[in-house]
Design a protein that fits this description.
The protein is an alpha/beta fold and about 350 residues long. The protein is built from eleven helices and 14 strands. The strands form three sheets. It has an eight-stranded mixed beta sheet with strand order 4-1-9-10-11-12-13-14, with helices on both faces.
Length: about 350
């Protein structure tokens, strides 16, 4: 595929590994060897870096994604969804001959899930895909032990870097990884990651350490909400999570991050940014996971129209002034199986 550069400045720039996600819900309990369990629900969707891309694009943000697609049915399906359905710019992406799209099967039960993945390293690195990255307003990145060259180039372009980090399978939690925060505007780890990397015992202590390293520090706490400090405005915020039934938690952290970026681009106060991101993540876990669970403005607007609880009306009253007059058409959630590309997709419910 030709490496064509975006014509307009992206709002959000992304790169990372894309997966085809198959999510099974309603298990009740995890399966045991030799046992067959029939599930109550199933959904298929692009996943991995697509989670962030779709969540951002559904707020109307110009989103540019640099990733690798396999030359197979799963790759073609993911490309069609991202470009054709979600209007994400894929001019920095490539299709790799003879390489298959990584596949993840997610077994969701209770408030958690187990993941089984098959795949190989892509033939193109993030640095090869990005080259000299476009001067985007923001970039959402997943920092790893080995720094990526394109990050420094993006920061030099004036791009604000919003970063998260993943689980360390070595359990070493090297604090050297945090050196990369010198390039970042914001860092959004979960509590387990934040405490491990900062060698602290509480989310509050971890937040204090991180706020010394990056202008905006956020620590997400799952069902306990999130805490954050914005050194650029002098704000501190601690907000609770919504009490929402969980169908599938896959990708909820990505929806939180993309929603926080969308609110930050709007210049919202820190408490509003946290509440908005937590709400979007909460709404996403009510749908089958992967990228297509992201609510976008349509889902936020639909939820706000149903809220009658006086406390919620007060806490989220800012949405009345933030939701666009036209929140857009209904978003398309994950189908049970990928539709035949030759047939028109069904109308979402």
């Amino acid at each position: 595929m030709d490496d064509e550069r975006p014509e307009a400045r992206p709002d959000v720039l992304l790169t990372g590994l894309l997966f085809y996600d198959l999510v099974l819900t309603g298990l009740g309990k995890p399966p045991t060897p030799g046992e067959e369990i029939w599930t109550e629900g199933m959904g298929s969707s692009p996943g991995g870096i697509a989670n962030l891309a779709v969540a951002a694009a559904r707020y109307g943000l110009k989103t540019s994604l640099a990733t690798v697609f396999g030359d197979d049915h799963y790759g073609a399906y993911c490309r069609d969804v991202l470009a054709g359905q979600e209007h994400i710019d894929l001019s920095l992406s490539r299709t790799a001959d003879g390489w298959h799209t990584p596949v993840t099967v997610s077994l969701a039960y209770g408030h958690d899930r187990a993941l089984v993945t098959h795949g190989q390293e892509p033939p193109y690195s993030q640095d090869a895909l990005m080259g000299h990255p476009p001067a985007a307003r923001t970039a959402l990145v997943h920092i790893e032990a080995e720094p990526r060259e394109w990050l420094a180039k993006a920061a030099a372009n004036g791009t604000k870097i919003y970063a998260d980090v993943g689980w360390d399978p070595t359990q070493q939690w090297s604090s050297a990884l945090l050196d990369q925060l010198a390039l970042c505007h914001a860092f959004l780890p979960n509590e387990t990651e934040a405490r491990a990397y900062t060698r602290t015992d509480t989310a509050a202590d971890a937040l204090g350490k991180l706020s010394e390293l990056v202008p905006v520090a956020v620590v997400t706490r799952g069902g306990d909400g999130a805490v954050a400090v914005d050194q650029t405005t002098g704000e501190y915020a601690d907000v609770p999570a919504l009490d929402i039934d969980v169908l599938d938690a896959t990708g909820a952290g990505d929806v939180f991050g993309a929603s926080f970026v969308a609110a930050s681009l709007g210049g919202w106060p820190l408490e509003e940014r946290l509440r908005f991101a937590g709400l979007a993540a909460g709404l996403s876990v009510q749908r089958h996971g992967g990228a297509l669970a992201a609510p976008g403005w349509y889902g936020i607007h639909r939820w706000w129209q149903t809220v009658r609880d006086p406390e919620l009306r007060r806490a989220y009253g800012f949405l009345a002034d933030r939701i666009p007059a036209d929140p857009g058409p209904p978003v398309r959630y994950a189908p049970v199986t990928p539709p035949d590309s030759a047939r028109p997709p069904s109308t979402p419910q």
